[in-house]
Amino acid sequence: MLLSDYTFQTVAIGSAILGLISGVLGTFAVLRKQSLLGDGVSHAALPGVVLGFILIGSKNTEFLLLGALLSGLLSTLLITTIVKYSRIKFDSALALIMSVFFGLGLVLLTYVQKIPNANQAGLNRFIFGQASSLMRRDVNLMIICGSILLLLLIIFWKEFKIFTFDSEFAQSLGFSPKKLDLLLSLMTVTGIILGLQTVGVILMSAMLVAPAVAARQWTNKLSVMAFLGAIFGAISGIFGTAVSSFIPKLPTGPTIVLFASLIVLISILLAPGRGILHRLYRQKHNRSLNIERRAENDSTI
Amino acid sequence: MTPQFEIQLIAVIVAVGCALPGVFLVLRKMSMMSDSITHTILLGIVLAFFITHDLSSPLLIVGAAIMGVVTVWLTETLTRTNLLAEDAAIGIVFPLLFSIAIILITRYAGSVHLDTDSVLLGELAFAPFNRMIVFNTDIGAKAIYTAGTILIINLVAIFLFFKELKLVTFDPVLAAVLGFSPTMVHYGLMTLVSLTAVSAFEAVGSVLVVAFMIGPPVTAYLLTDDLKSMLIISVLIGTINGILGYQLAAIFDVSIAGSMATMTGILFISVFILAPHRGLLSIFRRRKMQKTKFGKMTLLFHLLNNESSFIQEQVSQICIVQNHLNWSDHFIKDIINRLQGENCIEVDGVFIKLTDKGRKTTIQEYNELFS
């Protein structure tokens, strides 16, 4: 009965699509050692959301998303510029820019709250996410943007692959790393912003990292990793939504993150070849092999 | 003390207290760990609250500090498996702990005033309402004393263990050889970071703690190469951010902590552009100078090289030189003008020739470079 519930279906589909997109995009973010970009960009989106509201004057989702997108993109550009032209490392630049942007967003938010007769209530909800408030309209937007993102990824797959693993080689082949970097950042930022509404600012970073890290344990092939990442993301989305609607007073976003983390834990422990259990088994096996060999050597002497 | 003065005092104390451990975070490439810790201390506070059922209990701070250290330990244990990079480990640990905290709050603490907004945002303007009362006398806002204590702890710890911190930060292997345990120093530092985060987030919210911890040290990092001056400059920048941030907030009547963070960003960008040696402007100026110098030398060498050849008449035509060197019209004109100004070449219609002085400088430069 619950599974055929309209609201449940909407939220579940939305979370699944979000997990799918962030699983695929996260693959590249994790491999490029930019796992925390999700955390940074989603915080940096706040001033864009509020500015979008100030300029348009309504809480129209598309405009707020556009503001978030622009401000997220600006923050990524600033971070890359700082890293390029100074000795400041990526992580410091990220921490600085995201917190400063967030501070600016707070300033704007408190400014908006003084404008009389403005229906600004709930603007910060937008950033902190409220999966249960997802509407069909939002889900449709997600499906459209998600399809465009996936299509772009398929078209530029070869380029992104070379660029991720060997950007100098990519350059020698005539691809511009600068443009590829910009395109990939733009796509990642779009994915992150799409997820903001569902799981919120802090949990979006988990959705970008966890499925991809879990997928990494099972394969050494980029395409398989992206595919598994998408599946793991979607599974966490659906299961998280389902469990949180069966158990009362269980917030959806955090439950999704719990599931994603659980998948990571299982993958790290059990993955064949790389996993911790396999490693322990191999160590034990090697040890017994060593003892046997030593025994053989002793007997020959 | 007026409330305005009290707020500014708290702002400065918090900003300085955060900047001190921040210097080591930036130098140890652990900036994002501060973001992680400021979020996970929420779980520590929630767990401690379940034990004490008292929101003003000092045990909450202890719980938060322990959780900060646990966060670092979990992240490092994950990283040590070599199955994922350090940034990915951070990106998994802190959302997980934070999610657990939120689930616990929504399920079990709904009736208590412990909401996520106040943790994430914080508000400095309310700080003076919470008074410190000893023997029935009001001795100032409570935040002055909590933040002040942490500031003093940070100062004393850095003063006492300056040598150890410096060694472990720049050369952990040497530190280990000399008998200082890098692990001990590392976890000591992380305890300081957690304590500082707990004391600050009440006033400014967890996200902005990151701005105060990382902002001033990163700005100072562009201005100096010396650890001691970096600490001192960070403290100064923190103070400036606190005071100017408050003034801005008072003028526009907006969030004080947010305005302090914005000020941190403005100050950083100004230094990033204007700093001597490392600033964007001086980098571009240096590149431009190097380009001109290289252009001048290339033209001089080219002319000297052609002097011996008997087709000199032809090759020293400006347009042919330009063709040989593949330069733009603008660039070759600029270089010729500069060299003419220095009396190194003379222009005769479409021809350019080295002067005696020019020949001498060219040979001298050549010898400097290639002998």
From TrEMBL, chain B:
GO terms for biological process: response to zinc ion; transmembrane transport. GO terms for cellular component: ATP-binding cassette (ABC) transporter complex. It is a multi-pass membrane protein. It is found in: Cell membrane. Keywords: Cell membrane, Membrane, Transmembrane, Transmembrane helix, Transport. The keyword Transport applies. The chain crosses the membrane at residues 6-27, 36-53, 59-76, 88-110, 143-162, 174-197, 203-223, 230-252, 258-281. Belongs to the ABC-3 integral membrane protein family. This is Metal ABC transporter permease. It comes from Alkalibaculum sporogenes.
